[in-house]
Amino acid sequence: xxxxxxxxxxxxxxxxxADEPGVLELFRSSLxxxxxxxxxxxxxxxxxxxxFGESPGWVAxxxxxxxxxxxxxxxxxxxxxxxxxxxxxxxxxxxxxxxQGMGIFRTLTLQSVAELTLxxxxxxFNTPNxxxxxxxxxxxxxxxxxxxxxxxxxxxRSALTMVRSRVPASLWSEPTTVxxxxxxxxxxxxxxxxxxxxxxxxxxxxxxTPAYLVWRTSFEPLHYRLLLASPGDPSEGGLVxxxxxxxxxxxxxxxxxxxxxxxxxxxxVRRALKESGADYAIGLRTGPSAGLVPLPGQGPLxxxxxxxxxxxxxxxxxxxxxxxxxx
Length: 327
Fold this sequence. Notes:
Blueprint: E1 11-14, H1 20-31, H2 39-48, E2 57-62, E3 65-78, E4 84-95, H3 104-119, E5 123-126, H4 133-138, E6 142-146, E7 149-153, H5 156-163, E8 180-181, H6 182-186, H7 189-196, E9 205-206, H8 210-216, E10 225-228, E11 238-246, E12 249-258, H9 262-276, E13 280-284, E14 293-294, E15 301-306, H10 321-324
Parallel strand pairs: 4-5, 12-13
Antiparallel strand pairs: 1-2, 2-3, 3-4, 3-9, 5-15, 6-15, 7-13, 7-14, 8-10, 10-11, 11-12
């Protein structure tokens, strides 16, 4: 057993731009990033291009080398009265395998929480998996609620395929020509503004702006598509989705429904299924979810922690799949 005195000396501090090559090398070596996957570009998109601001990060160093990293994705919510609430989401973290078991993850997380609180961020939220959730709960996180999932199979055979494909979904998307390239279409501020007429107006929800919609759909390998209810008039509403593999099934992940009514949303979901050939559509039922039926007992567990503010009541959250997938 290694004694306390035998442990290597570590330095903990906020990450600096010059640390990024070491951070990326840490992720390649500790997380097994596959050669050819666009992981580095994805990292840059998430943490440098986010319209809510660049992600703050913290590093653990041993003799100047990055051996631990922790970062939080900046986010902005609106409360039920329309007031902006600055938040962060606990996301990417890694520890060099040779330095695991030394408390690096805990130290970096608690240091970051303290500094984010002083900086005025209101809350932190995330949807940790079963392995990491206990660690977060020990550091002051609380279970807020299970985010209920809604689905719509394309038919009986597709429903059977869906049931048989209860495995993690692929990160990267399958290309499709259905609808419009979402990022290109939403770069037209008039299109974005007309769709945003139908964004949620109540509850604790993401501050959806034209800049947010463009960024959220702009990472090309994810192939986000925009399906409009009326091709010539975005004010009639639209649906943003992507196709991804989950086992043997082809899944249409609905990340946004910006529609004037339930009927329009349900019709768009059925169109996305028919035109893409997906086996089923999936989304969250805490936000707009027209046409998706409940899948009882399923869905990620949302956890929160107060920083300079307090999380809303569990029932107040109005999240869509676009708020929680990927990150």
